[in-house]
Amino acid sequence: MAEVEVVVCKDTSALGQEAAERFVAAAQEATWQRGRFSVALSGGSTPRALYTKLVEEPQQTRVPWPEMQVFWGDERHVPPGHADSNYRTAGEALLAKVPVPEANVHRIKAEQPDVEQIAADYEATLREVFQLSAGELPRFDLVLLGMGADGHTASLFPGTDALHAPAERLVVAPWVEKFQSHRITLTLPVLCHARLVMFLVGGEDKAETLRSVLEGEGEPAAQSYPAQLVRPTAGKVVWLLDQAAASRLQ
Ligand code: 6PG
Questions:
Q1: Contact 198, 73 (CB under 8 A)
Q2: How far apart are CA 20 and CA 57, in angstroms?
Q3: Which of 21, 93, 181, 240 places its Cα 20 to 30 Å from the Cα of 5?
Q4: Tens digit of pLDDT for each residue in 17-45?
């Protein structure tokens, strides 16, 4: 059963600082124990608060950047230079400012027209970097996630078949009706196999959904909130919230 911790931070800057300190701790522990630190970055805007703090001292010096293997939890179906690209967001705000070897940055090649090919290529990269045998899941040291007001996380949206991917799939490319576009996303089993999942959630617009996700009885079977389904089998989930997002919690 996953260990769950909920931390309420004063504001976005405090949330970024708390996330950065935990990122540093996870990176140091992973590198010390296993010689490297595998992380899946999330998309959206909230992680900017983390990236800002990670490139500041003392955090920047404390992260073993050369030992980091960088992946993304999901990506939009756009080229890497597109304003919506999660790769571009993290590239500009973080990776361009720290010494992660280029060979360790594993971008989802979402410029390709064939989304199934994008998913297959990314899955092959995961299998190669994590040296997975058939049927084995990659175990990330840290998975960063956000949550939408509809309870989606990564690109696992409510009611989509991405939530029911075949067990052997690590990456899928669901059509997302509300965006009239495909997304490429890690599957739920991969997210649930992480050592540490860190949700960064801010803003009043998330408060009601967060109450349901963290305090509701919501039947996982209902799959109403994908974020609620991220329960690492042998890992920890930390919810880092700002006061606005946490305003409806008991
Ligand atoms: C994406 C993200 C998505 C994001 C949430 C929250 O590609 O958009 O992976 O899951 O984390 O939508 O986004 P904000 O942090 O911008 O609120």
A1: no
A2: 11
A3: 93
A4: 999 999 999 999 999 999 999 999 999 99
151 within 8 A of 209, measured Cβ to Cβ: yes
Q: Among candidates 98, 143, 129, which has minimal Cα distance to 36?
A: 129
Residue 223 confidence (pLDDT)? 54
Identity of the amino acid at 59:
Q
Expressed in angstroms and rounded, the spacing between residue 145 Cα and the centre of ligand 1 is: 8
Ligand 1 centroid–CA 33 distance in Å is: 31
Tokens of 55: 């490139």
Closest C-alpha to ligand 1, atom 13 = 44
| CA distances in angstroms from 90 to 49, 86, 114, 146, 180, listed in the order given | 11, 6, 24, 14, 24
* Closest residue by Cα to residue 78 from 23, 40, 118: 118
Please list every protein residue whose CB sits less than 6 Å from any atom of ligand 1. 42-46, 73-74, 86, 146-148, 152-155
Closest CA to 89 of 146, 135, 127, 158: 146
Q: Which of 6, 3, 20, 14 is nearest to 144 (CA)?
A: 20
